[in-house]
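Dear Dr. H.,

I hope your travels went smoothly. While you were away I took the liberty of generating a structure for the chain from your last submission, since the lab meeting agenda had it listed for discussion. I wanted you to have the full record in hand beforehand rather than looking at slides cold. The sequence, exactly as received, is reproduced here:
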Amino acid sequence: MPRAKSAAPAAGTGKPKYLRRGKVKEIYEVSPTELEFRFTDDISVFDKHVPSVIPHKGETLARTAAHWFELCSKLGVKNHFLDLPTPSTMRVKRVQVVEKPKTLGPHPKNYLVPLELIVRYYVAGSLWDRVKAGKVTPTELGLPAGASVRYGQGLPEPHFEVTTKLEPIDRLLAMPEALELAAIDRKQLDQAKETILKIDSAMSREIEPRGLLHVDGKKEFAIDTEGSLMLVDTFGTADEDRFWDRGAHERGKQVEFSKEFVRQHYRTTGYFDELSKAREEKEAEPPIPPLPPLLVDEVSRLYTTVFQRLTGTPFVPADDEGPSPERSG
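The corresponding predicted structure, in token form, is as follows:
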């Protein structure tokens, strides 16, 4: 597990320069080739920023992501991770972010592929919504025509989906549009899929003995300065991926160990239906209400518990650790 160390200042500025804010993290420029992610304790669901703060959330995400990036390095998967200057701050290699990479030239390099690649191993989340609505058929899931599909069902083969990355609301893409938008070819997309399966297989081998199932998750890639695929952003955390308690699933129940726990709250209150209706009818979206205080505490405990079960490391908040030693090597 990488240890935090003192942050180095950005070249020529004395400190990292603020660039922009994502859904739950702030992005700073360290140098022309390096960025800094600062993970906040904010939370978002359904592409909506929840007006609640979840204690320790940012730290658990940064440290969990670093754990998986180190696994990727052992697997020989090229990625953008450099270091953790603090327990909630990550340094990464920098790439260009443009909505249409083809504007960079005929053979663009060093850019974020504007796609999210999702792999599902069980029927859950938005996939279940689409199954219920008849938008996804059993045959599309590798099942016999007319087969009954149930929530929590394991899929015979991993189910791949591609969505937009830089649009205000993520939308599913057909493969031709995805390739055109991302300025990549089918060979590169297949390579990305193979890489995801390799990573997910290693993740499952690590977490299943700790009583977790990897249900689904998203990953993002860039094309580096050499024109090769490079894994970027973060993955394998309670925000990007869905995990279930393995024992409960074997007994026919799905116990959430991911942000899905929060999504289910807003489904139960009826907010999700209200939001979905507004989006379908292209009306003003209703503001998302804050989480109840007791639920905030429960969600905070969820994130620290997920960190411990994913990494096999007890969670001690940074404030309780004292100064962190320099990393060796």
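Two observations you may find useful: The CA atoms of residues 261 and 299 lie 8 Å apart. Confidence is low (pLDDT under 50) at residues 1-13, 320-329.

With kind regards,
E. W.
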